[in-house]
Design a protein that fits this description.
- The protein is of the alpha+beta class.
- It contains three helices and eight strands.
- The relative contact order is 0.12.
- The chain has helices spanning 27-34, 130-141, 143-175, and strands spanning 37-40, 55-61, 71-76, 79-88, 92-96, 104-107, 111-120, 123-126.
- Strands 1, 2, 3, 4, 5, 6, 7 and 8 form an eight-stranded antiparallel sheet that branches.
- Helices cover 29% and strands 28% of the residues.
């Protein structure tokens, strides 16, 4: 595993002048100061690719226009978001998390970095690796089917809630001795 540029040099020692780096470093500041951000992720939007508490990411500053399948780092409100580029437009990008069902339009200037690799335990996975690219293409290609089944699941869940509500109401009426 590569050293964390925020806290270690190549020998694993804390470089002079970096002893007082705050525990929570701002990602945008790390990209400017150290030329990359290495750290953990949080959230579920990029499942199954990235898992909170298991994976660490390496993000470099954006230096060129992103392409479809790249994973962009951008800010939404006060939060940093790491999502996949679905398509590129003149003004920016259409972006979606691997575990999300809605697209976002993100302007070019909002994107501050791009994921170049990530670590799963001791395994390094590069965004240029053919196995990763197959996964990314499959994830984007299968989106319409995933969305279809997601909507069916939501409708079934809503119908089950209505049935439970009806049966609970009838049970209460029966217990009180009420009849229609």
């Amino acid at each position: 595993m590569e050293p964390d540029p925020i806290t270690e040099d190549a020998d694993g020692k804390i470089p002079a002048g970096k002893e007082n780096i705050p525990e929570k470093t701002n990602i945008a500041d790390a990209l400017v100061r150290f030329g990359k951000y290495v750290g953990p992720t949080s959230g579920v939007s990029m499942l199954p690719m990235l898992r909170t508490g298991r994976d660490s990411v390496v993000v470099l500053p954006k230096t060129e226009r992103l392409r479809p399948l790249d994973v962009a780092l951008y800010r939404r409100g006060g939060a940093y978001v790491l999502h996949r580029v679905i398509s590129v437009s003149e003004k920016g990008y259409v972006i979606r998390g691997d575990n999300c069902y809605a697209d976002e339009r993100v302007p070019e200037e909002a994107v501050i970095g791009v994921l170049t690799e990530y670590f799963r335990k001791d395994e390094r996975i590069s965004m240029t690796d053919e196995r990763y690219l197959r996964y990314a293409r499959k994830r984007v290609k299968n989106y319409p089917a995933r969305l279809f089944f997601h909507r069916i699941r939501l409708r079934l869940k809503a119908a089950a809630k209505r049935c439970l509500f009806f049966f609970r109401r009838e049970k209460v009426r029966t217990e009180k001795g009420e009849r229609k």
